[in-house]
């Protein structure tokens, strides 16, 4: 069924309105004429509710999503998003609760926040948690700000170097830069661990800390994580844990127990708050006691000798990261998740996630070389380098997977692995679907040998063929403009597969 | 096994066999033994019926805007959200998708973001809007950084004291490591003219909010003229709802427009997730943080949408990126897009009008009560300051007992106002509600010994 | 994107469960062994919530629906279903309200029911309304039972003939038969009205009543409706109004004002409660005072001298039509609809519905002959008899419309019109979409001339091609059976378009 | 124009012009002038925010099962419905589609119905199930008609007095014009054995409910044997929830199985929409009312589903149809399908077990309270009769004031039981709830003068 749908602006008609608003029931007063807008909201569309509903329903069907199929996007933990979470977050007692409500009248919400703080601390082995950060990147930002504040408090203003492995996610170096730190890259050894020699050579009196993802972005648990932590600590640095891959180790090992000082949780990954097509998330952070006072606030605490809870700013806080108290809508979902799974359920999550990833590894590694040949954690990084079809690129393999009904894995990340294909099935994926995915991957390898154009032309069954990204960047059209759309439709630029940029997708 | 797990014991056994191990535990041999498999001390797992019942109980401990008459705003607003918004948002195709990195199968998300960008540009008078920032606070903070990196050799940002206190705090958090100074709001009594007087050659940007935190509307034009003359940029923080009726910030000269989009289709949710608005003039585009969607065509020549200009972003440029932002507020941007599409031209204007007239009605009625005074230095939109002979916290406690959520207590943030509350009136507060609020205040005045 | 999905039974795996149930928290007692089932629920599937969600999400995408496009199904009033209705019906005060709750504690629900009764009576010109019937057909059933009871009360047991126009919907004669009445068919005249002469000839002392749809199923307002009513009444019969087409005349004319004694409302058409893929509905009924006591119960009434409401059975009621008080979920939606539209909004509904239908009529009648050449009401009946392509059948035209992105209109109904195509755009359809529909219909007419196989092969862009309905009926497979499915998959019976049964769809 | 209407004034004018008239009113010239365009006296139109607020107020006037502890059943049950059911039901593709008459673009609905039919057959032991009937009452009524038309020359239907009173009433409504007698329930004290004794050569069908209205479970086998021996059919009315644990009615000999499916994923909704279960053995298929879906293949050989055996139905056969049913309870059948799929084998059994054990716990605790007696003639499932020295209506009034919704008052329907209530316990009533209920009864007993 064709779901083509024009830009909403092309459905507009003068005088239509899609909402049923109340009448003005008070006396009218004068408007401040000099402050009124004078453009009659030019360019704003006018549609009925009927049309708006159809428009967004139709375009929605042009999306692949977790509920329509396997979405093995490495580093993103595209696990099933439980429906009960959606109902919970929409209960009026929470959805209609104003953030500045007197805490006495928001005890239900504060109770949930306090319990989530405690549970996250328990699961990760930290002493204190702040739920404020809006996403992982903001959690990282808070962490490096805390490192900076801590070092300054020790009089070590010169500690301005943040070490990041070459496999690190882009947000790690970008974060360090936003705090005004200098990024120092650390090599990966032949087993996919932090290269200890390289690390030693880069540590020193200017070291603020190391940002480490563990399991790392190669899907591997660092075999020397405790040694790495010891080295960093010995050099006076602090250990930042990027918790994007926490899904591999719930009930398996606590980051706080292997030397991390601070870490962020991606509630929108591990604790399955929905990705929403790009967000929102929650990048709650946890830390050891000695950093607790620097945490971003407000946090929630139990008022001693009472059954009440209150918000408070940590005494030496690096400050507010955003308005109000955090993305509560995500907090409540994560809380429901942990409360309904319990300790055993969480461990099952990780066991199944890791089992599934290793199954894919075993079944694909003969055709698609693994980046590092050892058991992986919740995801496996392969290389799209087919021995018998060197012309096939990871991008082609990814696009061809679409025709087989799968969302492609993350590609070209980590950038340290050439032609990387990073597959994270998550614990909710079935063996049945994984077997179909394996079959598709093997079939694609065969197609690549038999007729590479099948891959180069893919996808052919998606709502659109490959798009001209190069053209999009060369002449950006970032908002609707009838003239530019007319031109675009006339142009019919045929983007060829060779023009496709190869860039990380995660 | 939990009800989310899709494999049977048999299937798990088959997978273990394929891997060549006997127990899933062996996959974790790499984890240092002493810390492997900790016993987590968590509350016992609850069934779905139990958790929903517990949530019902917890929810009833909260005084939400459905169970009270609320006149609280201060940056988060009880605006009307048509049911259609959430009905569409709940489509799994939207909310269970990831960032649209594979455009062939993410056109739904991409087209929606493109439309969001377009609507924001129409509303703000900007040339480009990003796919969202975290919220109104972080948007203004990153706008300051963007301005700072866009103009050369200027290291100061001036911020009006009437910018939301949380935004100003966030701005300071964001800029603390970047060697740039934030000033202008030291004196909370300062006017916009006082701020303009501080502009000098070192001023990278001036940040003004309109309607400001205290509800007042400002003309951005003189501010823009002044800051432009000094070579700096004007960053406006706006309320999208007000833009249905009031000054187009782009037309008035703003260079970067930020704001909180919560009032546009997003529930209060105890403070988040909300929607950071981020838009600018073309010339600053390459320094813009966050994702951008552009229109293009596919191999068949059909129009489609892709993420574009990604070389600004962390996943490509790493430490040289314009920002570290990755996950944003995509679904909230979608909510706002649907909401704005439903409202359309007429609806946007009408909502703003209802807010304006009802707020003015409330102000004029409150002004009639002895012991209360409306403090307004100029035209306001939907919020206004009421000063009182009563301490605001005790006033609000009494109001709460009458089923009314009073205005925001300004005492801590703006001590010079004395006992002052920020009253907010939206299209959700009917005349009847306002009359009830006014009556309650009058009753409190009459029995003032109770406080 | 491929949405093929196997029967849910093929996704089953031993031991999986898709719900999170509470533990048994009470002492266990013995089970009555002799009454237990012994088949271990053989054949019952076992899936995770993840899998169930995916299964139903995927199959849902194989449906066309109002929210994805124009659905001009004549007689079905496929108008937009407002989203606020869905929220209203799900409020816990209603959705979680037990029907046997003491009425003192169900006043909110009773208030709504009483007001809907009154509003429906006002809109239609009747004196009393019962909300009990579950659908139009059950409303009809109640009406003919009431007619029977009324005649019997007058001692006229011999009145056992129910007259139905030849254009009547199938439920009309089927209903009469279910009451044990004899159906007498009345002809349609050359203007699409009841043929008065034929009517006269069929009225008599055995006449129980006439069942008339007005506007009728030809989309026409009967030009002699009052005369018809007079004739029926003069013969001692009663007038039953089939309200399926009420959408044409809200605020335009009240059936009670033109001679009807009893009628049903299809809340699931006129008052836009969603069709749900086949149901549920609500076939509320209204009548004149002299029939009121026979209505099915319970009804709701205001308790005199109080502000309370109560349920009561009409004194000479034909009885209960179902358990409890009616499809309350539909009642509340219809109530919201009327309360949010008001009198003016209702009249707009009909005006726009009729305007839209006449626009289609004018734009298509040169190619597709109209059944009766006069202004129509909310729907227009055309004939799929293309002068220049006699090989094209209505079925082919309908199937080809699918490829153009439209749901086909109702076809082969009314059965009195050869090759009928019955188009009801409803008031919520846009001119833009109707113009596209007109263009498609005209294009199809051209294709039929140029290459009839295009039509015979259609649809080609739907999730499936034409299905083998003949085979389905010959060897019915009405439940999942692995062996039969294996066979079916092997058989690959190619159904040809010629084997397609032509049958009413509405 | 309302916000649902998609045409502008301009577009309407263009259409009028195309039609050749000047005013839309002219389209109604055919309507007799004296009655054309009546002024309708309806309450003024409300905005969406207003209607939702009013509904909130009205809803709070109702004591629903979330705001009280409910022990009320009697044919409508407070069973647990997983959130996933409604989340899927809300997909517009399902709920805004019509009956699947165009199978190429209705495979979603068709496949769901096919799966529904299959699940019901597995649960009931029948060969075929229809796509739904209105509810448990109409299903049993039409089953009686189906039996009557399937067997020759028998004009009597015997119904047990323990069949739901509403079902028996509906049965009489449905059969009043058909020349068939309904008897067996005149004496409400009659046992199943008494009913069997009435079977004779004129008995077309015997209708038995299990668990019956009073909660008792019955063995259908002896009934089936007896009625089959006399040449009649056994119609069983069942509770799908009980079938997770108890006797498969088909295996026990039932010919037609009907029932109310509400307990399987459908909210209480003050009595509807619910779900009529209708299934039978193969030999009666051609007399079955309602829609049936069958599996087939398309022109490409792909498996698909279609409505089939339509020559039974009103739109084909008109007055010769097996029934007049057209619109059914499609969406409710979908709800039950999703619900049953989520539960699966293990869940179905577990829900039934929880109900059984909790109901027995409640019964044994109530039996301990002086002044209350549990009246159970045999094994019961989730409901049981409690007789009391108190009139039930006053008892329930006191319970209501304690936040408890007591059992169904049986006084009117089964006067021989004296002061008796039908107590229902499901998986939604925790041990704690039951203890609270028992405590309340005990308190009432202790302070019995209060009644
Ligand atoms: C390894 C890693 N680190 C950090 C992030 C950033 O998290 P967020 O997107 O929540 O800001 C991601 C997200 O993709 C990630 O995969
Ligand atoms: C003219 C007409 N009459 C009666 C009916 C039967 O109504 P229901 O399907 O609600 O039983 C219909 C429904 O399609 C109809 O179109």
Report on the architecture of this protein.
The complex is a heterotetramer, with two copies of chain A (506 residues) and two copies of chain B (451 residues). Chain A is an alpha/beta fold. Chain A has 15 helices and twelve strands. Chain A has helices spanning 49-60, 83-89, 92-95, 107-124, 136-153, 171-178, 196-202, 225-234, 289-292, 328-364, 394-403, 431-450, 452-457, 469-474, 482-491, and strands at residues 128-130, 161-165, 182-186, 207-213, 238-243, 262-265, 285-287, 299-302, 309-312, 380-383, 410-411, 420-423. Chain A has a seven-stranded mixed β-sheet with strand order 1-7-6-5-4-2-3, sandwiched between helices. In chain A, strands 10-12-11 form a three-stranded antiparallel β-sheet, with helices on one face. Chain A has a two-stranded antiparallel sheet with strand order 8-9. In chain A, helix 6 (171-178) links the parallel strand 2 (161-165) and strand 3 (182-186). The radius of gyration of chain A is 25 Å and the shape is globular. Chain A starts with 48 loop residues before the first helix and ends in a 15-residue tail after the last helix. A seven-stranded mixed β-sheet of chain B has the order 2-8-7-6-5-3-4, with helices on both faces. Chain B is α/β, with parallel strands linked by helices. The longest helix of chain B is centred in the C-terminal third of the chain and has 38 residues, at 330-367. Residues 75-76, 135-137, 169, 171, 213, 217, 242, 244, 266, 281, 283, 506 of chain A line the site of one pyridoxal-5'-phosphate (PLP).
């Amino acid at each position: 069924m064709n779901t083509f749908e024009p830009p909403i602006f092309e459905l507009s008609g003068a005088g239509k309105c899609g909402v049923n608003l109340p009448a003005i029931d008070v006396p009218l007063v004068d408007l401040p004429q000099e402050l009124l807008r004078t453009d009659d909201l030019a360019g704003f569309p006018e549609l009925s509710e009927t049309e708006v509903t159809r428009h967004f329903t139709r375009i929605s069907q042009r999306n692949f999503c977790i509920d329509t199929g396997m979405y093995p996007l490495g580093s993103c933990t595209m696990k099933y998003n439980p429906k009960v979470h959606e109902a919970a977050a929409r209960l009026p007692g929470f959805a209609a609760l104003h953030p500045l409500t007197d805490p006495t009248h928001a005890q239900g919400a504060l109770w949930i926040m306090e319990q989530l703080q405690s549970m996250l601390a328990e699961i990760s082995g930290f002493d204190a948690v702040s739920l404020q950060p809006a996403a992982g990147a903001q959690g990282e930002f808070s962490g490096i700000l805390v490192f900076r504040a801590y070092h300054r408090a020790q009089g070590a203003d010169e500690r301005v170097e943040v070490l990041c492995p070459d496999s690190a996610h882009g947000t790690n170096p970008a974060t360090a830069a936003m705090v005004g730190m200098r990024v120092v890259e650390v090599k990966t050894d032949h087993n996919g661990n932090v290269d200890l020699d390289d690390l030693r050579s880069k540590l020193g009196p200017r070291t603020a800390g190391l940002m480490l993802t563990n399991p790392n972005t190669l899907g591997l648990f660092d075999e020397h994580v405790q040694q790495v932590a010891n080295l960093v600590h010995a050099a006076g640095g602090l250990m930042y844990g990027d918790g994007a891959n926490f899904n591999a180790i719930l009930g398996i090992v606590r980051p706080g127990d292997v030397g991390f000082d601070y870490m962020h949780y991606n509630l929108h990954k591990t604790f399955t708050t929905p990705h929403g097509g790009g967000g929102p998330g929650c990048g709650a952070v946890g830390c050891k006691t000695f950093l607790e006072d620097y945490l971003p606030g407000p946090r929630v605490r139990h008022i001693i000798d009472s059954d009440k809870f209150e918000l408070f700013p940590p005494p030496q806080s690096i400050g507010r990261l955003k308005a109000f108290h955090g993305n509560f809508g995500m907090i409540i979902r994560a809380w429901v998740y942990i409360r309904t799974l319990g300790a055993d359920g969480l461990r099952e999550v990780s066991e199944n996630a890791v089992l599934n990833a290793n199954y894919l590894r075993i079944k694909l590694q003969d055709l698609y070389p693994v980046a590092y040949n050892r058991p992986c954690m919740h995801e496996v990084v392969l290389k799209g380098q087919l021995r018998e079809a060197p012309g096939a690129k990871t991008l082609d393999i990814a696009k061809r997977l679409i025709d087989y009904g799968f969302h492609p894995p993350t590609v070209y990340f980590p950038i340290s692995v050439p032609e990387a294909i990073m597959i994270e099935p998550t614990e909710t994926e079935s063996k049945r679907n994984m077997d179909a995915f394996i079959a598709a991957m093997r079939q694609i390898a065969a197609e690549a040998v038999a007729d590479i154009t099948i891959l180069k032309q893919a996808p052919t069954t998606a709502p659109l063929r490959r798009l001209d990204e190069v053209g999009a960047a060369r002449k950006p059209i970032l908002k609707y403009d009838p003239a530019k759309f007319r031109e675009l439709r006339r142009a019919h630029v045929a983007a060829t597969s060779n023009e496709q940029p190869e860039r990380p997708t995660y | 096994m939990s009800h989310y797990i899709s494999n049977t014991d048999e299937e798990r056994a088959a997978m273990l066999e394929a891997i060549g191990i006997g127990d899933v535990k062996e996959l974790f041999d790499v984890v240092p033994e002493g810390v492997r498999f900790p016993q987590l001390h968590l509350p016992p797992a609850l069934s779905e019926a139990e958790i929903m019942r517990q949530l019902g109980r917890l929810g009833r401990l909260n005084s939400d805007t459905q169970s009270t008459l609320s006149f609280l705003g201060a940056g988060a607003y009880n605006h009307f959200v048509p049911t259609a918004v959430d009905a569409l948002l709940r489509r799994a195709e939207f909310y269970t998708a990831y960032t649209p990195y594979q455009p062939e199968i993410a056109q739904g998300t991409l087209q929606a973001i493109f439309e969001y960008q377009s609507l924001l540009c129409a509303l703000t008078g900007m040339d480009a809007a990003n796919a969202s920032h975290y919220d109104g606070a972080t948007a203004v903070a990153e706008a300051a950084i963007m301005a700072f990196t866009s103009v050369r050799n200027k290291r100061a940002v001036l911020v009006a004291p009437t910018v939301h206190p949380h935004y100003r705090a966030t701005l300071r958090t964001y800029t603390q490591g970047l060697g740039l100074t934030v000033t202008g709001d030291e004196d909370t009594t300062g006017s916009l003219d006082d701020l303009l007087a501080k502009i000098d050659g070192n001023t990278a940007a001036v940040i003004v909010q309109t309607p400001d935190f205290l509800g007042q509307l400002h003309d951005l034009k003189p501010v823009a003229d002044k800051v432009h003359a000094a070579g700096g940029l004007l960053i406006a923080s706006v309320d999208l709802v007000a833009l249905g009726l009031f000054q187009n910030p782009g037309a008035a000269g703003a260079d970067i427009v930020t704001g909180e989009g919560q009032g546009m289709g997003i529930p209060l949710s105890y403070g988040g997730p909300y929607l950071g608005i981020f838009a600018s003039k073309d010339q600053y585009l390459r320094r813009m943080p966050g994702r951008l969607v552009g229109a293009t065509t596919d191999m068949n020549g059909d129009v489609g949408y892709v993420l574009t200009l990604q070389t600004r972003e962390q996943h490509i440029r790493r430490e040289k990126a314009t920002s570290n932002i990755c996950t944003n507020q995509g679904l909230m941007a979608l909510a706002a897009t649907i909401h704005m599409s439903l409202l359309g031209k007429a609806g946007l204007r009408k909502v703003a009008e209802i807010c304006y007239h009802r707020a003015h009605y409330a102000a004029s009625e409150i002004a009639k009560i002895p012991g209360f005074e409306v403090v307004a230095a100029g035209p306001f939109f939907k919020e206004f300051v009421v000063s009182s002979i009563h301490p605001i916290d005790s006033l609000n406690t009494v109001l709460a007992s009458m089923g009314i959520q009073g205005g925001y207590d300004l005492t801590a943030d703006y001590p010079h106002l004395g006992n002052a509350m920020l009253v907010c009136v939206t299209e959700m507060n009917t005349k009847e509600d306002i009359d009830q609020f006014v009556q309650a205040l009058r009753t409190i005045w009459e029995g003032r010994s109770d406080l």
